[in-house]
């Protein structure tokens, strides 16, 4: 039972988003190409692990130690985020899309490349999530939940950036070299910027604990993490709007453009409301904790006096902390963004640039 629960925690978020892009997306991706794309994401994850191990054994990238102080901790986080994580992972995903999906007989539109890149990212995230949760001990549920709200949407957004520029390449909307370079470089940059504050927080926290360094840099890194997630969330909404709405008004529309099933659209719009509502509740909790943490923290610490409630009290101390409020507020961004995306549909009429959630469809 525990194994089943662990597996479902690891795979449910990516499978949910995969179902959305297979049933709701306006281009006829095709079930066969969709499943192939998801499977290629699993292969990309294995390939990225091999590439990372090769980089580690080659000792090409420098290593900094605690003796290098704060600059060393930050440089090490940047090297790990970019060289050891973003480059091999996004390169592996790009190779699957460019060398396999693009050449598939089922790929016959820019929308196929857009959706295929997203599904590769989701397959990658699914296997990565399974590996993370399998290595966890008693806190597998917490790890699975946090990764479901952060890492999996992050991989999805990277896939959206990659697929968007590959779709522009297909439609010849950008010079070929520019489109392909952006399809590779932008996801690498977004992935690096996402991972850097998280890794830097660990490195700097260790430095603070061992050397007595001022904890002030930790606050700046938390704000940076929030800023990166906010920009990524807004970027995801913009890219989704271009491919789900604006593509209907393109001078040369995709050959596969077709109306989605109204019943599926209705259910996904309800799911979008639920997801956005969940994100709003988490954000409100984060803001409340950030503002009122002192009184709540004193109350939580009082619970620790009872030995039977000691672990619960420690959890309350963590929960009612200002840093926790910052973390929760950032954690709410991706659910809010995907809540908006799940509610998107084509504009009411082909000339209405502001119809994000119209009551009528262009084919009605």
Structure, explained:
The chain is mainly alpha-helical and 364 residues long. The protein folds into two domains: 2-258, no CATH class; 261-353. The chain has twelve helices and no strands. The protein has helices at residues 2-23, 31-58, 69-101, 110-135, 140-149, 151-170, 176-211, 216-244, 262-303, 310-319, 322-331, 333-342. The longest helix is centred in the last third of the chain and has 42 residues, at 262-303. It is globular and about 60 Å long. Residues 349-364 have low confidence and may be disordered.
Brief summary:
The protein is mainly α and 364 residues long. Helices cover 76% and strands 0% of the residues.
For this entry, give a set of tags.
364 residues, mainly alpha, globular
How is this fold's topology laid out?
Layout lengths: L1 H22 L7 H28 L10 H33 L8 H26 L4 H10 L1 H20 L5 H36 L4 H29 L17 H42 L6 H10 L2 H10 L1 H10 L22
Helix pairs in contact: 1-4, 1-5, 2-3, 2-4, 3-4, 3-7, 4-5, 4-6, 6-7, 6-8, 7-8, 8-11, 8-12, 9-10, 9-11, 9-12
């Amino acid at each position: 039972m525990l194994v089943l629960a662990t597996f479902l925690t690891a795979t449910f978020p990516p499978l949910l988003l995969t179902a959305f892009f297979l049933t709701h997306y306006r281009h006829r991706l095709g079930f066969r190409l969709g499943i192939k794309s998801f499977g290629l994401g699993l292969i990309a994850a294995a390939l990225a692990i091999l590439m990372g191990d090769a980089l580690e054994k080659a000792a090409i990238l420098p290593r900094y130690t605690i003796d290098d102080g704060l600059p060393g901790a930050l440089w090490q986080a940047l090297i790990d985020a970019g060289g050891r994580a973003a480059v091999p992972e996004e390169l592996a995903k790009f190779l699957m899309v460019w060398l396999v999906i693009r050449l598939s007989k089922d790929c016959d539109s820019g929308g196929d490349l857009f959706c295929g890149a997203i599904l590769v990212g989701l397959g990658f995230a699914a296997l990565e999530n399974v590996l993370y949760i399998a290595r966890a001990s008693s806190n597998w549920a917490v790890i699975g939940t946090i990764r479901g709200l952060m890492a999996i949407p992050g991989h999805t957004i990277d896939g959206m950036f990659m697929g968007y520029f590959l779709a522009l390449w297909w439609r010849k909307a950008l010079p070929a070299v520019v489109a392909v370079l952006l399809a590779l470089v932008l996801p690498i940059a977004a992935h690096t910027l996402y991972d850097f504050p998280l890794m830097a927080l660990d490195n700097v926290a260790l430095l603070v604990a061992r050397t007595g360094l001022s904890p002030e840099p930790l606050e700046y890194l938390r704000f940076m993490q929030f800023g990166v997630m906010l920009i990524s969330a807004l970027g995801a909404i913009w890219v989704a709007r271009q491919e789900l709405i604006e593509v209907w008004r393109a001078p040369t529309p995709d050959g596969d453009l077709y109306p989605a099933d109204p019943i599926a659209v209705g259910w996904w719009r309800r799911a979008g409301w639920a997801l956005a509502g969940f994100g709003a509740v988490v954000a409100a909790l984060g803001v409340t904790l950030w503002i009122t943490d002192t009184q709540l923290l004193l109350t939580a610490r009082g619970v620790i006096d009872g030995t039977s409630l000691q672990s619960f009290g420690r959890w309350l101390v963590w929960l009612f902390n200002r840093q926790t409020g910052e973390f929760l507020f950032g954690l709410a961004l991706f659910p809010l963004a995907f809540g908006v995306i799940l509610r998107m549909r084509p504009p009411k009429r082909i000339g209405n640039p502001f119809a994000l959630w119209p009551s009528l469809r262009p084919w009605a």
